[in-house]
Write a structure and sequence with these properties.
The complex is a heterodimer of chains A (194) and B (198). By secondary structure, chain A is α+β, with helices and mostly antiparallel strands. Helix content of chain A is 18%, strand content 29%. Classes of the chains: A alpha+beta (194), B alpha+beta (198).
């Protein structure tokens, strides 16, 4: 099994106090953990790649824990999450898909069994490519106040033979959420949707 | 956040970068740098104002707040910081001089207080730009500007800032130089630390 080789890590934390409206009593915080790894399949078509998902599991857990730590250390404050990846030019989009299982399950584990599917996106791109990572409520995908997105990117990554992996966690609704829909207080929490 | 801060902050973003390898070669220990960036309202947006003292006071407050944030993000004590830099991007309704008022008169003193020392000039850059503008924060050793291994830069960007009436203010702090620095010059072990240069 290929080894996970990390070139760099980046941690972003945003604290949002207001966006032109009333100042939030508790600022919304959003954090992204980014890790740049070598793509073991860069440069040619490899048929069997799914073993690499197991290799990525420890990294996923480490990134998920680093996000909880960046948000203060208590997993209970996390209300939204998302994930994504950017595959360098010598790879294929399918390499980005390797991140779905280890990235998603890592966050659910660390958050104590979150129910909703982890929203995600991915693409092939060059150094400095930006990725808008979708964010939804961790227990009920339809919670409208928590539909959000966080833009991430690293100036010098991914190089052609690299993959940039990203996980995002947030502490709440958009700072001035007011377009109705299912509220976090109304979640039934059975199916991960409502 | 400091309760008496007069600055109107919309958001604060912190960035931490760790480099573990370069060209397949291990960087041990990893080089680390952090930037703390505040997005504030520009009190002088849309008008020419002669006296920019309010922005100078804002610069003083942000100097303390952002340096504390950057150092905390690295998990180090201030005196362990090795290099630093500052930068600002003014939204389209402001002038470059507004960035200068924040960065140059009063911001440096609290930065140096948090870091314990800081004999060297704090390298800086500034620009006017729209949402998502890239800021390249120059970096230099905090006690001796000529330390060649610590000449560096850190790029930061916030996708929704600065709006026309806002200013983005950034402070970057590191606990290391470039990964695998090997172009000679003054090393950090040779610092005298008297004149801020060598």
């Amino acid at each position: 099994m290929p080894e996970v080789q990390i070139r760099k890590r980046v941690l972003l934390v945003e604290e949002i106090f207001h966006e032109g409206g009333p100042v939030a009593s508790k600022p919304l915080r959003r954090a992204a953990a980014l890790v740049v790894i070598r793509n073991p399949y860069a440069g040619g078509y490899v048929e069997k790649i799914d073993d690499f998902m197991d290799d990525l599991k420890p990294l996923g857990l480490e990134m998920a824990r680093s996000l909880v730590a960046a948000l203060g250390g208590d997993p209970k404050v996390v209300e939204g999450y998302g994930k994504g990846g950017i595959v360098g030019a010598a790879g294929e989009i399918e390499h980005g898909a390797l991140w779905h299982v280890p990235g998603g399950y890592a966050m659910r584990d660390v958050l104590g069994g979150a129910k909703a599917i982890v929203a995600s996106t991915k693409k092939v791109g060059g150094p400095g490519a930006r990725l808008d990572i979708p964010v939804t409520h961790i227990n009920a995908s339809y919670v409208r106040s928590h539909f959000d997105a966080m833009e991430v990117g690293i100036a010098d990554a991914p190089r052609a033979d690299e993959i940039l992996l990203a996980l995002v966690m947030t502490t709440g609704a958009r700072v001035h959420a007011r377009v109705g829909g299912l509220k976090a207080s109304e979640i039934k929490g059975e199916d991960g949707l409502r | 956040m400091n309760a008496n801060i007069r600055t109107k902050i919309r958001k604060i973003v912190t960035f931490v970068e760790e480099t573990h390898t370069e060209m397949g070669r291990k960087v041990d220990p990893p080089t680390r740098r952090a930037a703390a960036v505040a997005v504030i309202e520009n009190p002088y947006a849309g008008q020419y104002v002669d006296d920019l003292s309010e922005l100078m006071t804002i610069g003083e407050e942000l100097g303390e707040l952002l340096t504390q944030r950057a150092v905390a993000a690295l998990g180090i004590e201030g005196p362990s910081a090795e290099s630093y830099g500052k930068a600002a991007a003014v939204g389209e309704n402001g002038e470059l001089e507004h960035a200068a008022a924040i960065l140059h008169p009063k911001l440096g003193t609290p930065v140096r207080r948090v870091l314990g020392k800081g004999a060297a000039l704090i390298p800086s850059s500034k620009k006017r730009g729209g949402l998502g503008v890239f800021l390249d924060i120059p970096l230099g050793h905090k006690d001796a500007a000529f330390v060649r291994s610590h000449f560096d830069g850190m790029e930061v960007r916030i996708s929704d800032a600065p709006r026309a009436n806002e200013i983005m203010v950034a402070i970057a702090v590191t606990d290391s130089g470039r990964p695998l620095a090997r172009v000679g010059g003054l090393t950090k072990e040779q610092i005298k630390g008297e004149d801020g240069l060598r």
